Amino acid sequence: MNFRFFPEFERHAQRVISSDEFRDRFEALSRSGDRPGMIRISLEALGDPDISIGDMYRGKNEARSKELRREATVAGEVAHPDKAAAILTEALALAPSRSQLFFEILVQRARASYRQGHLMRCAKDCQYFEEVISRVQDQAFMEESRVDVLLLHSDCYKDLGASSRSNGYLNEAMRCIRELASKRCDEDYQGDDYDERFRIEKLELLKYFLNRKQQRVDNTDKPLRAEENVPVVEGKTNDFLSSCSDAIALGNDKMKGRFLYAVRDIDPGSVLIVDRPFSFSTDIAALHKNCLYCHASLRLQDVITVPCQNCQTVRYCSQKCCEFAWDEFHKFECQIFDYFYENKIQKTNSLLAYRTVITALYNQNFELNVNQEFLQVHSNDKNPLDISILKTYEPQDYKTVFSLETNCALSNPKDNLERAIQSIFFAKCLIYSLNYFHSEANDYKKHLQILAVALLHNMQTINCNAYEIVENIRDEETKILEPHNVGGAIYTSVSLSNHSCYPNIVRHSFPNGIVVVKSIRFISKSSEILDCYGQHFIENKKDLRRKLLAEKYYFKCQCQACSADWPMTLPNDQFNFKCRTCSKPCRRTRTTVQCTVCNKKIEISKFCNLLKNSIKKRLTALTKMYDGNYNEALPLLLEHAKCIDEILVEPSLEAIKTQQSIIQCLNATSSTSI
Asked: What angle do the packed helices 143-159 and 100-116 form, to 10 degrees?
């Protein structure tokens, strides 16, 4: 039988493997964590089905692109430039790559941005035009448009106060005008007064182009600013954990496995991990809103939208991101892209698993070869990798991905069967894509089983190890920055941190999928580095938290909040103090507090005055945050966090409020959108 779409293949698979005998065998293999066995018996039952792969994507549509361009022209004529620019972006995505229509729409969009006063967006469109036109052999059909673009580019930087850049593009435009004038004189005039004719022709062309220049409204863009830099880790880089600070180290425990811990006292706000993803994917809702490669928001005023050269589905923020994505992974998924976004398939993170395998098959020169080490690892695929054999723990090394927990044997056999069926289907897709671009990769057909095992392995890994890629959007009514998911990624260093319902770190997304981990409260030497897997003690009761964590991650949470059964609701005006000498809880009397361990006494008024003065810092910080001055607010909050850690016993509502405010400030310095 020949299967064109995944649902057809899945229905066939369900019929073939519906027998009790098969399901009993599969369940036994699932319970033992035998991935090769699960794939092997599934392939035997399916009989190596004939799956016809290809053309499962939305290609270019020139006719519709022209219609949209006309709509944009009408919108622009009736003074709706924002609407016109949005329509032109859709038209550009549908236009055949590097065609005359494509360049005409791009120039029209650049003009629309300039007219709106979005100077950086216009400048980036001009740069995009230059980058793409340079790859076209015959540029004659766009000679005049190139002069228009250069003059527009010059005007953008002139208005932004970058005179040297402006002059550079103006000089290049004048050079092109001279070439055009010379070409016309050579074609039309052979007389003795050639120089005079050339001068006249050049002046006429200059007048022609100046009359075509776009007028703009008052500038709404700010002057050029330095881009936000990704933070660096506190202190030195860890000798073994290449993405981590030397303030933390890797430990191992028989009960909870690997974990991270502090080797020295760590203050709030310290950068502990800067991790790059091994692989990443984009949520379907973000495909038109965020760059497929670096996940930058496409809704910001200084960002342009660049379409894929082959499909109309995905978008980028620059030609560079478009090229990187194509070389690294998108060319192997573009023509089958729509397979990955069927509702049922999205639940298994099949695209992220697919990209993980693609990344593992590459060498550093982006040349596909049969990675024998990868094949060997997945031919057995039972025993977890002992990372102690590694010289360094590198996030870009597939061994660190393979070492992550899969919980294969603990997973529901029905879930494993669903993943196994999808793994076989996408292994076929992968072989099709490899052969489409690399005919020499035909040998991959004999590796169908191993590729399916690798995909199954990574689907399971992702289920309990993947993290969200987020961007933060400020609600102008509440003045709160809310995180919005735009994708998912595998971060092998961050995955070493265990869960607590009262975390001491927080993760923030930066461009290119980079995640930065910072401390949000004081972490004493030897204490564990604790992340939150989605269940905080102030949001759900202990029993529900434990139930949800056990269902997804297969462990019973024994964190401080669960073990002590901290209440969800904490009093706003009640403070329990701790000894500043030994950090143990104190008993309160009417006038003093006394440590329950070392018996040291102190006047309660001293604690209250210290706390009162420190709370003023938090309130001042809140005012600054409300006005959008997060960089000024953060130092005040970090000082307050250190103070309350020294004098208040946990849990404390004041500590929770402070940590939430710190997270808001850190949100503002990471990936944002509007």
From this structure: 20
